[in-house]
Amino acid sequence: TMFVNKHSRTFIFKRLPRNYRQFTSSSTEDYDLVVIGGGSGGLACAKAASQLQKKVAVLDFVTPSTQGTTWGLGGTCVNVGCIPKKLMHHASLLGDAIRDSKAYGWNVPDEVQSDWTTLSTAVQNHVKSLNWGHRVQLRDKNVEYINGLGSFKDPHTVRVKESNGTERLLKTRNAVIAVGVRPYVPSQIPGAVEYGATSDDLFWLKKTPGKTLLIGASYIALECGGFLNGLGFDTSIMVRSRPLKQFDQQMAELVAESMESKGTRFLRKCVPVSIEKDSRGRLVVKYEDLTNRQTKEEVFDTVMFATGRHAVTNNLNLEALGIEVDQTTQKVFGGHSDDHERTSVANIYAIGDILHNRPELTPVAIKAGQLLADRLFGGSQVQMDYNMIPTTVFTPLEYGVVGISEEKAVSCHGEENIEVYHAFYTPLEFAVPRRDASHCYIKAICFGDRILGLHLIGPNAGEVIQGFAVALRCGATWSGLSGSVGIHPTTAEEVVKLHITKRSGADPTVTGC
Amino acid sequence: MTTSRRENKNVKSIYFAKAHHPHYPAVNINYNIQRHVATAEKKFECFNIQDAKDFQTRVIESPVPVIVDFHATWCGPCKLLGPRLEAIISNKEGQVSLAKVDVDENVEIAMEYLVESLPTVIGFKNGRKINKFIGLQEDDAIDSFVEKLIH
């Protein structure tokens, strides 16, 4: 017999057993699940399904950004979202720490500079190690990984076009759309697509960002603007109306003010008109001040658009299958047949950022994916609970929140039925270097003994709010919260020490112990 | 009791010997300095694997044993291990070759040999995997690993 190893492509046909599958472009194997999108949601769903002994494939493909940036397996969070963002946020906080350390007796130079190349290389190396980690995990969990662009031929057939051009047809019982969203750049603004970077590019920038303009008022604009400013770059944020429109407005204003106090310039009520390149390669931005209709001009090294994230579903062929999408955002509608993630086609589901009207958060996508796999293959009936999902805006002074905003509480229950307990506090560590703590603020929005929302601005807000979010999910009440004993000295204890109401009009500033 | 500086292989140490004859000057005796000598003559085969076919011909079908260094550009310890491997293997007078596999460029090969953490070093002889170690190692450990593969 001829020795055939897996590297050779020759076969002797008459020696093949009868049922041997020939190597063709279409696979006749049946999958239990094909997941389109290898991000937080897609990978979690695929791995969970594989744990239940199912045949799973995950497709992942990154269409390069407007500036040509591309990345590996893992989705937005790993490559151009949460992970690099948090690392750079931390890098900028270290700058503050070095400056504060003088007051604490450390012998540090008066001026410290950050080196973008060192930072971005370290961040990118970590991201690449995570890409690798995900590849290894998929192999360990027996999930087939295909680097290709997926689309639907019919509800049970996914066509995948690999980067080398080969096409495969995957027959599958179920499919999950987990393609996420991508930054939207307003193409009607001359020069925007040509010269504007987005969060897709920022973390992979080879050259230093220099003097940067961020256009947008979302958490992406504020978080990126925040760390760029902290790293020493001249940073401006152009906001059309108000910062953080999706969040509690009082907290949003405090966050913006805290950033302004650290030197970030907000160009409020301004909109970009055009972007051009000058002879030195810098970007000339013409913008309009909406208050007085004046057009102004300024030169920047980098312009980053953070003007929303849209679904890119036109290549999925959803229309042909009758999968309904929202007309404005192109996001996929879930909620069919009482299943939060089921689309209008019975065996096709959507999870993560692509799912219409659900929080765009990694842990939400992961949990929804895992629960979906359990329902599809594990006999579970448990639906994803999209209520009381905590999150944090990682601006230099972080804003952590679980529950609803004060505006929403008032509109749902009426102002007279809502009690808001609040406090301005000073983290102990701020006292010695005399750091500005005027934006450190907490409020708990209560309806009787029920806590509807807990909002906190302060250092490590993300770490602090996590525990309280669990408490609220377990039914913690206002009396339970305020009856709890604090840990001293922390900023978290200020949450359980809340007692001054907005209604009383009393000064909510926390004094001494 | 601490290991004397003489026994610690990673420490560069220079001792001055007293002149043993008035006509001969004091001599510097160098102990335990790692030599990274670039010479024109190739003392051993060291190559980067390009693809699966390359791996097949130069590792699986190699007449001499091959040490395969699975590494990545983003891996810090890999950058430290590389030179150590080269230095040690260069002293084996061609009895063993060194193949370098960048796991990002050769994912399939890395997957096939179940590489997870980096660096992973696998010793091949007669087309089969003989031994392996994971992570940055001290020179003694690397040396005994290489010796085990050769003999």
Determine and state the CATH class of the largest domain in chain A. Answer: Alpha Beta
**Spatial strand arrangement across the major sheet of chain B:** 3-5-4-6-7
Which stretches of chain A are low in confidence, meaning pLDDT under 50 for 5 or more residues running? 1-5, 7-27
CATH fold annotation of the largest domain in chain A: FAD/NAD(P)-binding domain
Amount of helix of chain B = 25-40%
Strand content of chain B: 15-25%
Largest interface: A-B, 12 and 15 residues
What separation lies between the terminal Cα atoms of chain A? 86 Å
Low-confidence stretches of chain B: 5-17
Number of strands of chain A: 20
Mean pLDDT of chain A: 94
- State the strand order across the main sheet of chain A: 1-2-3-4-5
Number of continuous helical runs of chain B: 4
Shape of chain B: globular
Q: What do the pLDDT scores of chain B average to? A: 82
Which structural class fits the helix and strand makeup of chain B?
alpha/beta
Q: What is the tally of helical segments of chain A?
A: 15
The SSE string of chain B, one letter per element, is EEEHEHEHEEH
Helix content of chain A: 25-40%
CATH superfamily of the largest domain in chain A: FAD/NAD(P)-binding domain
Q: Report the C-alpha radius of gyration of chain B, rounded.
A: 19 Å
Textual characterization of the structure:
The complex is a heterodimer of chains A (513) and B (151). Chain A contains 15 helices and 20 strands. Chain A has 513 residues and is an alpha/beta fold. Chain A has three domains: 235 residues, 3-Layer(bba) Sandwich (FAD/NAD(P)-binding domain); 114 residues, FAD/NAD(P)-binding domain (3-Layer(bba) Sandwich); 100 residues, FAD/NAD-linked reductase, C-terminal dimerisation domain (Enolase-like, domain 1), CATH 3.30.390. The longest helix of chain A is centred in the first third of the chain and has 25 residues. Chain A is globular, with a radius of gyration of 26 Å. The two termini of chain B are 35 Å apart. At the A-B interface, helix 4 of A face helix 1 of B. Chain A: Its cofactor is FAD. Chain A: Keywords: Disulfide bond, FAD, Flavoprotein, NAD, NADP, Nucleotide-binding, Oxidoreductase, Redox-active center. Chain A: Its EC number is 1.8.1.9. Chain A: One of its GO terms (molecular function) is glutathione-disulfide reductase (NADPH) activity.
